[in-house]
Amino acid sequence: MNVLIIEDEFHTSERLSHLIQSYDSSIQILQKLSSVSESIKWLSSHKSPDLIFQDIELSDGNCFDIYQSVEVKVPIVFTTAFSEYALKAFQLNSIDYIVKPYDATDIKRVLDKYSSMKAAFAPLDQGMLKDMLMEKTPTVKNRFLVRIGDQYKTVAVEEISFIRYEEGVNFIYLFNNEKYPIDNSLTELESQLNQSLFFRINRKYIININAIKKIDNWFNSRIKLELAPNPNDDIIISRERMKNFKKWLDT
């Protein structure tokens, strides 16, 4: 079986690939794509895979932007931060899904289903998918609950300067230099934050617009940022996010 993964978070994509091949080492991962533009280009120029694992929200758009440009008739498993309740309707169209954070049990469930029902999978109903996603947009959060040892603390989103992925863990950095680990993935956090205030600049960072101190042109038509507080890291806007980043700044 040949599988295509479309997921914009590098570590999530790598983990998904590992879980799939742990289920069956004979499964071939054809490619791991991270954006709408990459996916359209790949699907337009390659033979269709047997199965697609598809993140809904990508760095440069969402998944139905892909399928409005390219006709895809293979079954799709959506990987998403939406709740199971919100996505039950996907099953009506023979589309399955796994809710982040997922594990080996979830992968086994969808691959077992694919093996037993692959002949019955229907082509993607784009209109149905788009309508459901518009109705089930995640609620924007005003605060997050973080753990400090044996205690808990609430952090208002206005206090957050940036969120950074560090060695397998996401950390919230506050304007007052405090730092707290948080269990949510960057993709989940991106969907839970006010998009006029926060932006996912690359696979490692989500930043608050009020944290930007300086914007410089960088190599290969990219942009480098200086943030407050200083994360002691090169904050580079990835090329695929550049257009949306400039649009975000100008909103």
TrEMBL record:
PROSITE patterns: HTH_LYTTR, RESPONSE_REGULATORY. Residues 144-251 form the HTH LytTR-type domain. It comes from the Bacteria. InterPro entries: CheY-like_superfamily, LytR-like, LytTR_DNA-bd_dom, Sig_transdc_resp-reg_receiver. The keyword Phosphoprotein applies. Pfam families: LytTR (PF04397), Response_reg (PF00072). This is LytTR family two component transcriptional regulator. It comes from Sediminitomix flava.
